[in-house]
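re: the backbone from monday

yeah here it is again, tokenized this time
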């Protein structure tokens, strides 16, 4: 699959404010490829550089050094006039919606078409098509002040799609929404990708967003990409500490030390946490191993969710049986999946 966006040692340095303090390296030597047709996530804590990175894609910021190549066009040396056609192929969805309060829903979606010189008839047809696609055709004459957050973001997505972009950038597009509305908007972004074939780049600090829709993900810290890979692989085997912290916030499937202590007061058997995924560990496999060794296993904590539409999570079990048999069962489980052995209550 070919790359539609390539960062080549891209660096963005902001000078110290009014000559005081130190310069800020918001993006620091990033080399990264986004493949055509995928949903690519960029995740990081506040100040990691992810929003600056996405602004380099549509040249709202220009690189200090290195290059950004978008759809085969190098942006580093382009002047403003030559950047316009590149930007026309890129849609942008914002956290705070950025709708024009004086325009109706239809007027907001029509605005980029007016700028692009479409005729009134062309604009009307395109606006009707887009509002139907995002599910708010009945709100065409409404003003933004009367809409819910989810409806405002649907308008924002429709507006971003108006000029038939090949790339859609979503910068914290769900951060201002409640959990249920967030899932609705994420499902809409998946439709945009699947049905329209648009490459979607999602900037977020929420690993749940990555878990829900991203094919691949890059993790940023201090302006650098510290980890990149398939979303499922990054979740199931995070290589960097910051990634592990993000994964823990999304899955919440493993007991904290405090929870583990409470479990030990109620369960006197050996407590282990067993990884569950579609390749190595599954609940059926775990059950079979325990049965073969004559060990009883009771689920006392855990959770299994989907990452990139594939199962992943963990189960914390109390194992009860002959001590030797329990030990053999733990060894057998370790041979097929990840196991954290928390021991017995009296250990």
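seq for it, each position gets an aa:
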């Amino acid at each position: 699959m070919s790359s539609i966006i390539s960062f080549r040692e891209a660096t963005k340095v902001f000078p110290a404010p009014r000559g005081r303090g130190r310069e800020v390296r918001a993006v620091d030597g990033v080399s990264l490829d986004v493949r055509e047709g995928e949903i690519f996530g960029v995740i990081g804590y506040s100040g990691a550089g992810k929003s600056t990175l996405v602004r380099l894609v549509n040249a709202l910021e220009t690189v200090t050094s290195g290059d950004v190549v978008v759809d085969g066009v190098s942006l580093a040396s382009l002047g403003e006039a030559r950047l316009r056609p590149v930007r026309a192929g890129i849609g942008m969805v914002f956290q705070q919606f950025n709708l024009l309060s004086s325009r109706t829903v239809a007027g907001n979606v029509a605005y980029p078409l007016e700028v692009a010189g479409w005729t009134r008839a062309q604009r009307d047809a395109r606006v009707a098509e887009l509002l139907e696609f995002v599910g708010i055709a009945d709100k065409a004459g409404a003003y933004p002040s009367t809409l819910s957050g989810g409806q405002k973001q649907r308008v924002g997505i429709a507006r971003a799609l108006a000029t038939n972009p090949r790339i859609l950038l979503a910068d914290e597009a769900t951060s201002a929404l409640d959990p249920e509305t967030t899932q609705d908007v994420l499902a809409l972004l998946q439709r945009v990708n699947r049905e329209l074939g648009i490459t979607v780049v999602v900037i977020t600090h929420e690993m749940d967003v990555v878990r829900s829709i991203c094919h691949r993900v890059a993790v940023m810290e201090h302006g650098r990409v510290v980890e990149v890979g398939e979303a499922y692989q990054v979740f199931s085997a995070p290589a960097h500490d910051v990634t592990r912290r993000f994964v823990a916030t999304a899955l919440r499937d493993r007991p904290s030390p405090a929870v583990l202590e409470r479990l030990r007061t109620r369960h006197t058997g050996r407590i282990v946490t067993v990884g569950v995924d579609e390749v190595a560990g599954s609940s059926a496999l775990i059950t079979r191993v325990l049965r073969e060794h004559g060990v009883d296993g009771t689920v006392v904590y855990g959770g299994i969710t989907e990452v990139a539409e594939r199962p992943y999570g963990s189960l914390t079990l109390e194992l009860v049986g002959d001590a030797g048999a329990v030990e053999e069962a733990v060894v057998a489980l370790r041979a097929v999946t990840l196991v954290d052995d928390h021991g017995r209550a009296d250990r």
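The CA atoms of residues 44 and 166 lie 25 Å apart. The chain has two domains: 3-250, 257-343.
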